[in-house]
Amino acid sequence: MGSVSSSYWTRAVLFPDWAYKPAWSPGSRQVQLWHFLLELLGRGEGGAIGWAGEWGEFVIRDPERLARMWGERKGKPHMNYDKLSRALRYYYNKRILHKTKGKRFTYKFNFNKLILVNYPTFPSVHMPSQTHALQGQPPYLSVPPPMGPSQSDLSRLTSVNATLHFPPALSGWPVNMGRSFSIYHPTPHMAAEEGEERRGEGKRIN
DNA sequence: TTCGGAATGG
DNA sequence: CCATTCCGAA
Questions:
Q1: What is the largest CA-CA distance in chain A?
Q2: What is the tens place of the pLDDT at every residue in A178-191?
Q3: Would the Cβ of A106 be found within 7 angstroms of any atom in strand B?
Q4: Which residue's CA shows the smallest distance to C1' of C7?
Q5: Which candidate among A18, A31, A59, A151 keeps its CA 20 to 30 Å from the CA of A84?
Q6: pLDDT tens per residue across span A81-92
């Protein structure tokens, strides 16, 4: 895993390996639902799902179609919105998502908790082109610049990441490359939302 | 429609 | 852990 050094410099510099759970490599972990949603949203898929009003808000325009797409990805032919939405609801506790009440099929990502870092920066190519800047400009956080000389303190890194930094214009989302974007989600207990401070646990059955 | 418990599986 | 499946309740 320490083979490529010059590529993915941001990654190499700022984060330790463990922070990059291979999201969906062939033999690795499966795609998570929110990966999938972000993927569709990112490429402005438009039909089944799209960004809504607020930052991180999205609306599912065609629930059953979205469910079919999701089912196809996961090899679950009997997927439907009822089940998909249950998975979405589990995200409430994990604080990845919450519901925008009053608006049908509308949810909102908690980007406080969900921090996306790094997409494949190619060593050879110099930023192909900034062809299209999508409106509804989304949720990508780029990796901040500064790297102290001596740092093995990971918790510090986390807070550095938490500093939002909006990339001027990124060419797009890492979706086309498939298998190589990374997603990192720490669990800091900073930035309490209004009206909700729930620990991820609190329930343990068995 | 939306919510969340419960059982189950990979 | 992360859904999937099923389902009763609000």
A1: 53
A2: 223 333 333 333 34
A3: yes
A4: A82
A5: A18
A6: 999 999 999 999
